[in-house]
Amino acid sequence: MAVPRTGPFAVRTSDERAQLEAFLEEYRRLVGELLTGLTEEQARRRLVPSRTTLLGLVKHLTFVERVWFEEAVTGTPRTALGLPESVDDSFLLAEEDTIASVSGAHREACAGSRRAAARLALDDVVSGHRAGPMTLRWIYLQCLREFAQHSGHADILREQILAAGA
User: Fold this and answer.
1) Residue 79, class by beta-carbon neighbours within 10 Å (0-12 exposed, 13-18 middle, 19+ buried)?
2) 54 or 7: whose pLDDT is higher?
3) DSSP 3-state assignment of 135?
């Protein structure tokens, strides 16, 4: 008997766009669950010498969504979007950043990304990013790369935080 599959496993024989979107949606879901059950202190806890924290990773992945879908697709500059110029600064937390505010911003950015991508085909070229023209396919692949890399970081950090307790 076949095991029912969900997420990206449900679209193994679908078209390329459905596959790319399913994998990206799976990562978006995982990032959305990353801070669940943590205290504000745990979400901000630094366990490595870099600026990397769980809350900072979610904030950075919100930046990723907005840069690649809002900036690249719409041509709106980062400054007009209220985003830092430097990718490194996208990990920085402000005092007012909370689990609720950062998670909400991430959900809103994902919704905006879906809207921006909906009107484009994979081979459509956008030119709003400072790196120059790129296809929507390239944007999906770039975002998958970013989400995969940082989801791995987040899994390890979360495991360490939960193992240490409050």
Assistant:
1) exposed
2) 54
3) strand
Specify which residues 133 forms β-bridges with.
Answer: none
The Cα 96–Cα 105 span in angstroms is 13
For residue 56, the surrounding DSSP H or E stretch is helix 54-65
Q: How many residues in total does the chain contain?
A: 166
- Look at 118 and 9; give whichever has higher pLDDT: 118
Token pair of 163 as six digits: 């193992």
Is residue 66 within 8 Å of 109, Cβ to Cβ? yes
Which CATH number applies to 27-35+47-164? 1.20.120
- Residue keyed to tokens 């994998």: 23
Stated pTM of the model: 0.90
Tokens describing residue 53: 């924290």
Q: Could you tell me the residue ranges of all domains in the chain?
A: 27-35+47-164
| 3 state SS for 70-102 | HHHHHCCCHHHHCCCCCCHHHHCCCCCCCHHHH
Band of the pLDDT at 8, cuts 50, 70, 90?
low
* One-letter-per-residue 3-state SS of 14-67: CCHHHHHHHHHHHHHHHHHHCCCCCCHHHHHCCCCCCCCCHHHHHHHHHHHHHH
Q: Which of 38, 20, 46 is nearest to 142 (CA)?
A: 20
